[in-house]
Amino acid sequence: MAPEKTSTSARPRVRLDQPRPQRRRLLPEWDPEAFGRLSERIARFLGTGRFIVWMTVVIVVWVLWNIFAPSALRFDNYPFIFLTLMLSLQASYAAPLILLAQNRQDDRARVDLELDRKQNERSIADTEYLTREIAALRIGLGEVATRDWIRSELQDLVKELDGQGVFPADRSSVRDVDDR
Question: What is the pTM assigned to this prediction?
Answer without folding.
Answer: 0.53
